Structures are given as structure tokens and as C-alpha cells.
Amino acid sequence: MSSDIDPMAEIRASFFIECEELLEALQDSLQTMDDGEGDGETINIVFRAVHSIKGGAGAFGLEALVRFAHRYETVLDEVRADRFDVTPEAMKVFFQAADHLSDLVRISRDGDAMPDNKTAELLVALDAFLPDSAGDEDDAPEEDIDFQPMGLSLDLDLGEAGSDEAPAFDISDLPPPPPMPGPSAGAFVITFTPTAELFETGNEPALLLRNLMELGQGTVVCDTSNVPDLAGLTPEIPHLSWKITLDADVEQSEIASIFEFVDGLCQLTITEEGAEAPVAAPETPPAVSIDAATPPVVADEAPPPPPQEAAPADPAPADPAPKPAAGAAKPAAGGGPAAAAKSVDRVDLDRIERLVNLVGELVINQAMLSQSLERSGLSPHSDAMNGLEEFQRLTRDIQDSVMMIRAQPVKSLFQRMSRIVREASSAVGKDVRLHTFGESTEVDKTVIERLADPLTHMIRNAVDHGLESREDRIAAGKPPQGSVNLTAAHRSGRVVIEVSDDGSGINRPKVLQIAIDKGLIPPDSQLSDSEIDNLLFLPGFSTATVVSDLSGRGVGMDVVRTAIQALGGRITTTSNPGEGTSFSISLPLTLAVLDGMVVDVAGETLVLPLNLVIETLTLQDSDVEMVRPGNYVIEVRSGFVPLFDLGAAMGYRDPLDGFGDAVVLLIALEDGGRAALLIDNILDQRQVVIKGLDDSFYRASGIAAATILGDGQIALILDPSDIINSSGSMPQTGAAPAIQTAGATA
User: Fold this and answer.
1) Is 55 helix (H, G, I), strand (E, B) or coil?
2) How far is the C-alpha of 413 from the C-alpha of 411, rounded, in Å?
3) Exposure string for 183-217, b = 16+ CB within 10 A, e = fewer
């Protein structure tokens, strides 16, 4: 029976997905070490991540990845053994090695050319932290271990030269195995039987045994009693096991830690002298159990049954078992604590996108059905209306569940920015540290993917332009090391990502003069501070005098603004001279479905995000106060709130002369403030499916997207904050502003 799906291709794809998780854990732990908060377990996590990537790469023959990971792992092992003190210089190399390891994983996945020069440079840097002999361990012969193979001394008659027939061979021809050595006083007896998965993941029994013998004195005996005759021999199935007698003054947990990286890939027991029953290593199947994934082994004698009534010895506390290596077989259900771990299914993204689209259509059809039943004049207590309410609840639950599938924390994106900071600071010769906050903030996966490029531009600008040189910072009384903060948080139903630095701030006179010199604005322009800040987003604007790899070509912040607007977001700037600059990106949480309030303004049907609406009010003329011609406020609970005429702001009609019986929506702004939007009527409150506007459409201020209502009518989805910002900057004549706020133009 043939299949179009290549099983090895699926396993390979799964390995690279696991590599992403391992690289994320690697970056997290390295950052913890760099912050000075690391402990022994932190370096173990770093070591395990590199080791697991190496093991999985070995299974697929990714030699370049295996070689680099092995050398990186060797240096980390020196740190684990307390033979090397981690310095700030070493941490920089560790971060560079982690970045390069990530590149090698990506290159191996995509089949691109290997960066051998970069690999060689980093290997030299890593070898500098090793003892003189350790750096050449790949070429050095392995240490001798006191192996005593049982029954491997063969005296075979290979027949006469030129004979066409192979000599007959039977396992019974082997001499009987010598007796197993007994343990000495205070010794441990370890039995170790690898499964096929151990070799598939690139692990080596010889390395494990060598590390074990470093703990003390002892012997290692290879048991060949389960080796079948040649006719029944399968190369992929291991038939050897080892019995180790170790005389060492160590805890049992220390012995178990030698095998922690092959947990689930072998059968392992550790018995102390005098114990009545073998003590199994943590989360490892007992020696008498047979892995269901491993075919039965042909053996001369079956292993003796385990004692039926003997209680196992009380084991010493063992280190927590790590995550198995990539591609490792997981313990069977009920085999240990790992069996209770939450399972994760990997689903193709195209299937999720199809599910999201279907949910969107379901929401539209539910709205159409709701409107049809309401127009039919049925009683609200009829069976049909009760069924409709239940249908609406089910639709909401399905929509919420699907959105949770798409939601992802921004942690992976922030980790990529850490690398950008390291590379940019190295390129310009500055000492910069990135501080991240709110990494667990969840955003739609599509938003995260499309936010990577604009965020990269902003981080590079902060390092190159925002932060001063080391000498200038010291002269200004600042710490020599510059600081860039990357923050994510949910505010008013949107996600806000801020990039800030503690540099010198925006030099507004210089920015204004550059814009005039480049012909971007008229020479006699009189601009406010916020309008000068928004000049940074004009096409072709750059404050750099020399073109470099980071900046100077006039392409950057303009691209940032365009990308943010394409996501239905906006970007704002705040800067204080000598204190730094902050860029704030406001984005929708999802690009699929939202709860909206459907309103009528001058005969047009519009939708506003419901989570921004605090309350609704009905005005009288006495409730409105004019601050100056064209600018009004209303008093709400002993506080004044600016009033904006939505119909006039959208250009649907002229400003109203009076406000009697007018309907107002009190809106929450991202900065914690409030504003009031004047509308004509509230039509409905419902879920709407977000439909992005094509690039061929003009993106006017305040319009985030569009939707299809239940009656088939198309309605615009508004961004109230953008409308308020644009209205606040307009001259009272109603003419378009000379310089609009960032995010207000397409």
C-alpha cells in the first residue's frame, strides 16, 4: 500500500519544529546566565538544548550541524563541571554560538549553503575556552575503557580463498560467557541496554560509559548473549547490553545523571551493594520491560524474572529528568511522570487558516439568520428564537476557541530582537543591552509574523541613532552601557508594543533642517514637536550622514509605518532631549473576528470595536461647552471629555449646529484618556468578520478594515483613536493638515 507522504520527511519536519523549541529554551537560559541569575540547572538546560539538537541532527546526517553543536557542547560541559568560569566575554561568544546554531538549523532545513567561514571563526572562539587537549578531542583517540566483551573471541574458518560459499556460522559456536563479576563492597551495579532510538538520535554508548567510569574505579562487561545468528541479525536493532560494576564514593543520583540525556532511549537499572532489587533510574523503564517499539530479541537464555515480593531500595533523590532528545521515543503511558504531561498536536498552518475562514463564514451566516428571524415577527420566547440564542452561544464559543489556536506569545519575536541588538551594537561599536517585558503577551500569529521586519528596523535605529557612543554617555553622566527596552501589553482591546531607549532623544532642530534641505517640507514651515517627530516617517528621510549596513539610505521608518498600517495599526513617537525616545506601535489583537457596535452616522453604517466603548450617553445642549470655535467638551462625572463629531470627521456631513438628543459613545483611549464620539444612532451589537482592504483602496484616516453584515451590506470598521488624533490636528477650516500623524496616511 503506497502513500504520497514520506514518513522520513514528516519526522525531519518534526525535528526542525522541536529545534525551534530547543533554541528558544537555549536563548532563555543564556539570557538568565547573562543576567547573573543562573544556577546549575540553568547551564544544564543550555547543555541539554545543544545536546538534543546535536542528537537529532546526527539521525539525519546533518554533519555540519553536528560538528558545531558538538564543539559548543564540549565548552558547555566544561562550565557544567565547574572547570571554567563564565566571563562577560564568554557570554558574548555563547550568544554568538547560539545565533549561529540557529542559522545552521535553518540552513539545514532549507538546504542552503553552509557558512563555513563563520563556523570556523566561532569554533576558534569556542576552542579558546577549552584546555589545550580538549580542543582537539575530535581528532584524539578515545580513552581506553576496561571492556570485557563476553563471547566475542571468535575462531572462524572462512574457507578457502575463492570459495563461493560463505562458511556456516551459528551462535552456538561461541564459547560460553564468563561469569559476571560480583560487586565489591560499596559498589554499584548498573545494567544498560540501549534501544534503536538511542543510536538514531546520535548518542554513543561508549561516551556514556566513559563518563561513568570517571566517577570511580570499575569494570564494564558487554553482554552478547542476546546476539542472534547471522541469519536473524538485523543491523537496525541493537542486541548488546552492558553491565558495569562501579566502585565510587558518589550518590546514586549522580550516576543516574550520566544517563539523563538518553532517558526513554534505553533500559537502565542501578543497584547498590546489598540491595534486594534493582533501582530504576528516574522515568526509565525497568530492565525486564520490553519497549513496544522494539522487536523482540533472539537470545540463548531469557533474562531471569524480577523478584515478586522484594521491595525496591529507597533511591537517593535524583535530578529532574530532562526533555528527551529530538526524535526520542517517549515513555509509554503510565510509565512515569512523563505520561501525565500535556500532549501537543502539530497542525499544518493551512488547515488552521481554513478553519478560521470557515468560522468567519459561520459568524456571517449566524448574523444573517438572526436578522431574518427578527424581521419575521416571531415572539422572543418562541422555540426558533431560543434556538437562535443557543446557536449564537455556540458560534461564540467556536470563535473564541479558534482564536486561541492562532494566539501566540510574542516571546519568539522578542528573542529575535535580542540577536538584532547584539549584531547592531557590534557593528557600530556600542555596548547595548536589551530589556524585554511582557513576553507572554499573546497576539494573533499573523500579526507576529508581519511585525518582525518593522520591529527590526526600529531596533536598529535605536542602537544606531538613538543611543550615544560610550564616550558621550560617560560625558553626559550616563552608564557606559546603553539600554533598549522592548515592551508588549494589552491596552483597550489592542496590543501595544513599545521600543524605547535611554539615548539623547530626537534632535528636532536637526530633523527639521534635514527635511527642509531634502525638500520634504517648505522652508517656512512652522511645525509642532509632534509634527517634527513625524517627519522621521517621511519617504527618503534619514539623519545618517554616511551610508552603512544599518542605515543611511532613507529607507526604514517609512517602511515601518507602511507595514504597521497594513496591519490596521498605528505608530506614535515621544521623545525628551537627553532622556531618550520611545516608539509605540498599536495593533489589533486579531485579524479575523471582533465584537463590534454597529452605528449609523449620516446614513452610513459603521462598526466600532466594542471593547473601546465605555458607555453610551444622550446629550442636551446644556451638557456641551465650547472651548474655542470648533472645539467642544462634555462633562462626565465631574470631568471634562473632548467631543468629536464622527460624521464631520469622516466627511459625511457638515458639523452639527446643536446637540439636543444627540447620541454619544464614550471611548477609552490607549493612553488611559477618554473621548466622546457623536453619532446619530446605535443599530446593533454583534460579532463581525474583519475583511482587510486591498492595497488598491485608499486608506483614509480612521478606517481600519471592512466587514459584511448579516443583510449583505458592507460596513467600514473604524479606528476611533486614529480619528481622534487626526481630528485634533486638523485646522479649523477643515482643510487637510500639512503633516498628518504617523498612521493617518497610507
Assistant:
1) helix
2) 5
3) beeebbbbbbbbbbbbbbbbbebeebbbebbebee
Phi, then psi, of 737 in degrees rounded to 5: -70, 150
pTM listed for this prediction = 0.58
Alpha carbons 427 and 439: distance in angstroms, whole number: 26
Helix, strand and coil content of the chain, in percent to the nearest 5, comes to: 40, 20, 40
Q: How many whole angstroms separate alpha carbon 361 and alpha carbon 95? A: 46
Q: Are strands 604-609 and 703-708 parallel, antiparallel or unpaired?
A: unpaired
DSSP-derived secondary structure letter, 653: S
Closest CA to 660 of 696, 712, 709, 624: 624
User: Residues with Cβ < 8 Å from 415, sequence gap 6 or more?
Assistant: 24, 27, 28
Beta bridge partners of 187: 247
CA–CA dist 564, 581 (Å, integer): 19
Tell me: the pLDDT tens digits for 34-62?
A: 888 878 888 888 888 898 888 888 878 88
Q: Which residues pair with 588 in a beta bridge?
A: 494
Whether 16 and 32 have beta carbons less than 8 Å apart is answered as no
Question: Look-up: residue for cell 528558544?
Answer: 24
Q: What are 280-299's pLDDT values in tens digits?
A: 444 433 333 333 333 433 33
The yes-or-no verdict on residue 483 having pLDDT over 50 is yes
Coil, strand or helix at 258 = helix
Q: With beta carbons less than 8 A apart as the criterion, state whether 287 and 278 touch.
A: yes
Determine the average pLDDT of the residues in 136-151: 44
By DSSP bridging, strand 604-609 and strand 714-718 are parallel
CA 642 from centroid of its chain's CA atoms: 41
